[in-house]
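[Target chain]
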Amino acid sequence: MTTVAIATGIAASAAIAQRGHQSFAPHELNNTDAPPPIMWSTPELPRGAVDIESAEERLLRVAVVVRHLEQPWSIAFLPDGAMLITERAGRVRIVRNGRLDAKPVTGVPEVHTGGPRGLQGLMDIVLHPHFAQNRWVYLAYHKPTRDGGGATTLMRATWDGSSLVDGRDIFESGADDTEASRIAFDGRGMLYLSISAPGSPHVRRAQDPK
């Protein structure tokens, strides 16, 4: 059985100053939740490859692999080369041989989308390190709560070649004022789940020594 360790994090974390006190972003000092969103219209995807440069790496070439996805969030590559892709809206899609299956993968749990900042939904998807033997797939998502919110939850299911079966939640954080979440395995098979929270003085911070 896989041992699970949960590492909680703060997405908009503040650095700890050398003097021993915590620093805040300007919007946090004003007791606001986050800066105003930047609203851009969706650009047209190019038909061919595009050469770009970034601050981290130069001479990059970007090519469109698949179209018609709604807010794709994470990708897991299956041993046969197919891709499982999560859409924040609550769907898992599969791409085989460069073609997107029109039908979403079945077996995905009910997902709460939206949230206080409109960023909740279906997040990460990761294969177990021994996927070839156990066929386990892990999903991080916001599970609907009784009060209409969504709490970060970790689910494990089995991939049967076309759908997710025998899915069950293996960790429920109970944290409903959260956003992005990632899953990672270390070399010993320990599983880690990040749980984000908004950059606000009202949220307990993992980096606060007090």
In short: Confidence is low (pLDDT under 50) at residues 1-20. The CA atoms of residues 125 and 139 lie 5 Å apart.
